[in-house]
Specification:
The chain contains 17 helices and 24 strands. The protein is α+β, with helices and mostly antiparallel strands. The strands form four sheets. It has a twelve-stranded antiparallel β-sheet. An eight-stranded mixed β-sheet has the order 3-6-2-1-9-11-12-10, sandwiched between helices. A two-stranded antiparallel sheet has the order 4-5. Bound molecules: adenosine-5'-diphosphate, aspartic acid and magnesium ion. Adenosine-5'-diphosphate binds near residues 11, 175, 182 and 210. Belongs to the aspartokinase family.
Amino acid sequence: MSLIVQKFGGTSVADTEKIRAAARRAIRAQKQGHRVVMVVSAMGKQTDVLLKLAAGVCERPPAREMDMLLSTGEQTSVALVAMAIHDLGSKAVSLTGGQIGMKTDNSFSKARIRSIDTRRIERLLEEGNIVVAAGFQGIDDDLNITTLGRGGSDTTAVALAAVLGADACEINTDVDGVYTTDPRLLPEARRVDVISYDEMLELASLGAGVMHSRSIEFAKKFSVPIHVRSSFGDRDGTMIVAQAESESAAVSGAALTKDEARVTVLGVPDVPGMSRTIFNAIAAQKIAVDMVVQNVGAEGKADVSFTVAGDELDQTLRAVESIVDSIDASGVTHDAEVSKVSVVGLGMADQKAVAAKMFRALADAGVNIQMITTSEIKISALVPREQSAAALRAVHEGFTLDQRPADAKTWKEIKAEAAVEADVHDVVSRLQNDALEALTLTDIAFVGGQARVTLDGVLDQVGIAADVFEEIGQAGIFIDMIVQGFDGEDGRTSVSFTTDEANLEASIKVAEQICEKHAMRGVRGSAGITKLSVSGIGLRSHTQVGTVLFDQLAEAKINVEMIATSELQVNVVIDSAQADTATRRLKAAFADALN
Ligand code: ADP
Ligand code: ASP
Ligand code: MG
């Protein structure tokens, strides 16, 4: 008999009527012949209510007690949903995270799932029950209650679908699918029929709150197809699967992280090991950093900038300030009023001038870009928070995301073309059920023969990045990584990009012209560099990847010249002479995670 996991988010169980509607939907699925596992979130905004309650009694509540408190939200709703099912004449049993055997590590408020014991669920299903499981929570080895992080019920649902070998995982929510960007922020956003795991993973981690990003890690790893749909209607929504909607579109979605914060460590000695100290201190707090940019300035000192989620700024500053003296840096600055706008698309990996198009769209809307980072399938720009809505609208328009690409396929067409649904049972049986959310790497590889070009002393003005990358594009030069860093000293920034060694001379020529035109300080360029990439799933949320990488490179006295992180890859640019040593060390250090 087929098994279906149906997740209901907070708005979908916000009041008694909605709870009864959710119950009816599950009963209907059961009557259609499915075994049904429901995963339910706390009612409405109950988690926020509980957070406020805690803030009222304690300035910094102990993490363990916080999880104890927050888990009550889901405990309330599962009991009510089970009661509603009984009242409608069917059998149901509600279960807490502990009762579904959801074992996690002990990092309260962002616990990772280790294993799930499915025996009890299976027995209850066998007896004809609808199982109503509490989302978002688990227990650690000491039986402490843990939570998976805000939005974590999605992860509970997909994890259960994976270990139970479910035929479908439905995410019932208050939108009727995944849109090209948050429809609440931009009404012209378009609902997509299909989106790939990789795109959804990046979008979710860059602010598309419709899915918890870790749920997509699970879905990709275990080949669970996800159906995101509205709780309040019967229309099909969006399928999240391995395939993309369109092969031609460079960009398939845009996202905004409104509450982002920039931190800059000033005057860091430019010797191997300094980044390691900084980022290890942050990773130790399990805080994911993004947009890491290092500007090498005068006298062998560098400014290291990065962004973190706004609500993790205080904790990040405490971590960084604790090590500033030990690395002989001159200080730390931060800006809490910034937002990150990003575009994502599988198609951008092999198309030219996608970045230039984004920067032009922002420039035309009068938006000043403070930092830039890119990776294979995403480009992020840091902008002043008051311009964030304009920035999102500008990039959405710039890539005409409101229009369906001509070659877009529906889920039905994709399904008809290929046998896409992997045998979930088979996949699961190959994975041990004791480290479900462990780091999974797919490859460690390097591309040599690269060059880096840096424009220094770039005025912090609207339109410069657009100009730079349009001119490079017009010269027919294909570029790979781009980083624009915040310059702590005089309000200027520096822009670097990498390209094939063969393009070095031509790139420098174009850069010199731009440099003159915009009164920049100068141009530097060098060949003989290599891009080293660690690929896998959910690399940004597994903060130890950065730690191990920096440790290994620092121990071998290898300087990291540029870095770009995404959910799918961590890329570092190093001197080609050290590429072999670096690759060997990383392969050894990550042997366990490489499959
Ligand atoms: P639930 O409580 O059901 O988990 P969430 O509030 O977590 O619901 O997620 C649904 C919300 O996600 C939508 O109301 C929408 O505003 C927001 N959202 C953000 N980005 C997107 C996107 N790209 N597509 C659809 N919805 C999005
Ligand atoms: N109730 C939790 C939250 O509000 C988990 C979830 O809804 O996914 O974040
Ligand atoms: Mg949610």
